[in-house]
Amino acid sequence: MRLRQLAFLFLKLGTVAFGGPAAHIAMMDDEIVRRRRWIGREQFLDLLGATNLIPGPNSTEMAIHVGYLRAGWPGLLVAGACFILPAALLVGVIASAYVRFGTLPQAEAVLYGIKPVIIGVVFQALWPLAKTAVKSRFLALVALAALAATLAGVDELAVLFAGGIAAVVWERGVRRRHSGGAGLAQFPLLGTAGTAAASVTFGLWPLFAVFLKIGAVLFGSGYVLLAFLRADLVERLHWLTEAQLLDAVAVGQFTPGPLFTTATFIGYVLAGPAGAAVATAGIFLPAFVFVALSGPFVVRLRRSKTAGAVLDGVNVASLALMGAVTIQLTGAAIVDVPTAALASIAALLLLRFRINSAWLVLGGAVAGLIALYAPRLLR
Predict the structure, then answer these.
(1) Once rounded to an integer, what is the mean pLDDT over residues 269-289?
(2) Residue 9: is it exposed, middle or buried by C-beta count within 10 angstroms (0-12/13-18/19+)?
(3) Radius of gyration of the CA atoms of the chain, in A
(4) Can you tell me the distance from the alpha carbon of 223 to that of 212, in angstroms, rounded to the nearest whole number?
(5) Lowest mean per-residue pLDDT among 39-43, 90-94, 170-174, 195-199
């Protein structure tokens, strides 16, 4: 029963979760914490903090974590696979059309309606999450500092670790009545693997290896993914052109589900269905491994005062990152009066009437199509 519930929920989310990791996490909070009450909001925040401390796609790792908590190892596999599958299949279909016709299907109208709705979805999720995460004035200051640092362009990983370390120093100072920086745990930072020789011959195994490396070391946003893909596939290996890479990232952005399905598109362009499957498996496999290794320790971390302080700091910093992303995306999403109205209506319906966010996303897509075609039909 629990496996079926997980499969249904994450297939649905994987089909309608537009807008990037912040929006995906907001939808998961709505479905898992508020509607189904599978876990509490504090536990949800702990999982979110844990995903920010390991490489990989945060929203996919959240799905895997929830699956593990709900149904053990089978749930881990089912939740993660079901969240990835709809987007991977859709991207594969678009890639097939791209290879055949050489252009992307036009999606401006759909995006026009969906983007402002996503802003409303993320906004309504931030407030209840913030009320749970910000447990003291000090954590509020950490959140504000993290928001300012992110908007100033500081690396996301540096912001998260700074938040965790600041919370530990404060917690130890409160306990011992003096500043206690000594003995802090040192967190290893996984960086970009060294570049290999440029003479790598294309094949399915080298393709798998490239995306496995990216999935294993990539922290941060989709823009960081773009940098990795460009360095490896365009500059080092010369498997893609700049135009093909931009098309691949565009497909990842306007399709639902994790942005990492950009790998599916690239794999299909390079080697057809087999390449799509290999690239998808390579980039997502590390997420399953990292969650399998770290998942059992999340509850234990909360029991430790020091580790709990780290989670508190990382949690508020994570919410600050979500807030910064929302601010940055607002300018691109709300471009006129209709889009401002869509964002406001979405936030109102979610906060006041608790409408399911999936229906709002679909409604935004319909509104975008109406905005495009209605004037033509009335001529």
Answers:
(1) 95
(2) buried
(3) 21
(4) 18
(5) 195-199
Judge whether 339 and 116 are in contact, CB under 8 Å.
Answer: yes
Residue type, 258: P
Q: Are 216 and 286 in contact (CB under 8 A)?
A: yes
Q: What is the mean pLDDT of residues 62-89?
A: 94
Q: pLDDT per residue over 32-71, tens digit each?
A: 998 899 998 888 988 887 787 777 888 899 999 999 999 9
CA–CA separation, 79 and 6 (whole Å): 6
Is-contact 258 59, C-beta < 8 A? yes
Interhelix angle 222-229/242-254, rounded to 10 degrees, is 150
Using CA atoms, how far apart are residues 340 and 141, in angstroms rounded to an integer?
Answer: 30
CB atoms inside a 10 Å sphere around CB 12: 17
Rounded to whole angstroms, the Cα distance separating 337 from 326 reads: 18
